[in-house]
Design a protein that fits this description.
alpha+beta; paralog of FGE (formylglycine-generating enzyme); five-stranded antiparallel beta sheet
Amino acid sequence: METSILREEIGMELNRSNRKIWLLTAFLLLLWPAVARAQGVILPEPILEVPDPSSLRLEKVQVDVNISDGVANTHVTQVFRNAYDRQMEGTFVFPLPKEAVVSAFSVWTDGAKVRVTLGAINGACLASLTFATSSAMGAIARINPKDGAEMVYVDAGEFLMGSSDDDKGVSSDQKPQHKVYLDGYWMYRTEVTVAQYRNFCQVTGRQMPPEPWWKWQEDHPIVNVNWDDAVAYAKWAGAALPTEAQWEKAARGTDGRQYPWGNDWDGAKCVNSVGGSSPGGTKPVGSCPEGASPYGALDMAGNVWDWCADWYDARYYQSSPAPNPAGPATGHSRVLRGVSWGFNSPGSFRSATRGSGDPSSRSGDYGFRCVLCSPGQ
């Protein structure tokens, strides 16, 4: 009997203690936002500014929410797989205003897509929202509503452009290697497809280019387009052709790698004719997901050359500006990047390789992709 009463008294005392702890914690959670603002707490600066989170598409994303609650930082983590089921790399921080208060946080999947919404967690201030990806497919993607093209985000910052003196057997037009700073932008993940270009022609009344000998296949990159065709499509899509610098950074990232996937040649990671194994024409866009660039762009080596916005000058690197170079003011040929399926030398597929073509020329080797430099473009 005495033992039973003693147990009840101990239980009641524990409950009272738990309630006190809970009430104290709740008080601190409610008080912290006001205290933080009164003390002028500065939230972390963003690593990556995302202009339009509502249009983001995320793949295989680990989401860490860092909430300043006055006691400790709480981390809420969710992990999802993408369609490629591969490892990704990179950490991206989505900033909110310093006054932002979050009341709820939810993540849900839609097939391979992940969508994120924010609301408030116990009145706590959100210190930062971090998407730490675990895939080379790229963490941040967005859809261009005009043509349905998927785009990957290339954040602002410096990268190494061109080739160094240590790179043997490269053309002199790739030298000197130099640092370039670029503002952030969205790059099409793949080249514009036959289906996308056909829709553009139907809407605008423009003629389809001549059909290649392997015939039109809707999921292949459009070919036989000249530079003016590519520019017309880009304008219609609310985009532009990438500058040569934008193209190269999207292809090789910031670590100076030789190929989109790393420093060693791997013929299985791009559409090519090395070793006499010609594909006999283009392949569907994204056929080599293992060859993705650090930002998740595909076919940055092989399949087709990409028209770029710049005029070509073999000596341009000797005097090009460091921030946001846009190419020479005039010229006779336009820059081409990426190399096509018909090339058979591994070195040709390096991300620093430069090509050029008459703006009016058409070829089964020439295609293009687009870039958006701002969400409102």
